[in-house]
Amino acid sequence: MSGLREMRDQMRTVDLIVETRDARIPLSSINKQFEQVIKGKRRVVVYNKCDLAPTSIQPVVRKVMESRNQRTLFTDTNINKSVKQILDVARETAKSDPMRYPQLVVMVIGMPNVGKSSLINALRRTGLNRGKAANTGAKPGVTRTVSGRIRVLDSPAVYLVDTPGVMIPHIPDPITAIKVALTGGIKDNIADDTVLADYLLFRLNRLDHTDYSAVLGINQRTDDISEFLQLLGTKIGALRRGGELDTDKTIQFFLRAFRQGRFGQLCLDELDEPSVTTFFKNNMEDAPLSKNQAQKAKRAAQRQRSLEKARSKNLI
Fold first, then answer.
1. Where are the beta strands (DSSP E) in the chain?
2. 75 and 129 in contact (C-beta within 8 Å)?
3. What average pLDDT does the segment 132-156 reach?
């Protein structure tokens, strides 16, 4: 993957990694591909969009991640005090060894649509009181290439590098894939929207603290996705000639309501101990490589060795 390769090529000049994840899916937004790329680098894990997730999950997630030696922060890019936590980590790192870090370079990484570019703009706003430096958007894939350095602190000098969102080539667990798609990490034209809507309805019916029927203005709760879509489509006027339901328009309205936080603060991942253990076993342990994958890995390793050799001889 080109995004991962670009990150690897820049890693030699990076001092601190800010790995951004989505607080609504604290497990499902982990990309295990990053582990080899950032190996040996200082890292802080930032759970962004924490305003859309229950605050009650924070101590649980922090405990899980710190047991894996991952320092964890929770951020809302609309609140300067929240974002300042990251600047404090950068400042602390730079001041720990001024000779080693005359200027600190921070790389922001994460899966698509976890809010990396919004986070960079918030850091610049908070650190320098300046405006937008990175393009943002609600759809995944806004950042296409590794960007140039963006200054976010003057003293000590701290620079950020934005990177494209890197998706796992294959998510082995279909439920994890659905959660990533629901939060916008997979493009809507790739995911099956009816499956997403059905799963979201299932999760909303399991929650006691939100009344989605009241939010949407329909008069009843139901577990049947077809019945639900008919009720919602009728309410919002998503009907074709003859009164036929416009299913696509209705589903998009439902998914957009979730992504905008209209159903309140939600976490789609199960965080009890057995579920966490199962997640890491099923999603983070390396599966045997196919012959094709092994050949690709071998070629990538050879490219990396050639690159490092050229650098050592100051050829690049």
1. 16-22, 42-48, 71-74, 103-110, 149-153, 157-162
2. no
3. 62
C-beta separation of 208 from 264 below 8 A: no
Q: What is the DSSP letter of 245?
A: B
Question: How many angstroms separate the CA atoms of 147 and 109, rounded?
Answer: 12
42-48: strand order across its sheet:
71-74, 42-48, 16-22, 103-110, 157-162, 149-153
Closest listed residue to residue 29, CA positions, set 15, 8, 49: 49
* pLDDT per position as a tens digit, 71-101: 999 999 999 999 999 999 999 999 999 999 9
Alpha carbons 224 and 316: distance in angstroms, whole number? 60
- Spatial distance between the Cα atoms of 225 and 7, rounded to a whole number of angstroms: 42
Q: What is the average pLDDT value for the chain, to the nearest integer? A: 85
Task: Tell me the C-alpha distance between 12 and 233, whole Å.
Answer: 53
Judge contact between 20 and 46, C-beta under 8 A.
Answer: yes
Contacts with 182 (C-beta within 8 Å, 6 or more apart), sequence order? 196, 199, 200, 255, 258, 259, 268
Contact 23, 50 (CB under 8 A): yes
Residue 52, CB half-sphere, CA atoms under 13 Å: how many? Answer: 22
Global pTM value: 0.82
Tell me the C-alpha distance between 10 and 14, whole Å. Answer: 7
Give the DSSP H/E element, type plus range, for residue 139. none
237 confidence band (pLDDT: 50, 70, 90):
very high
Length of the chain measured in residues: 316
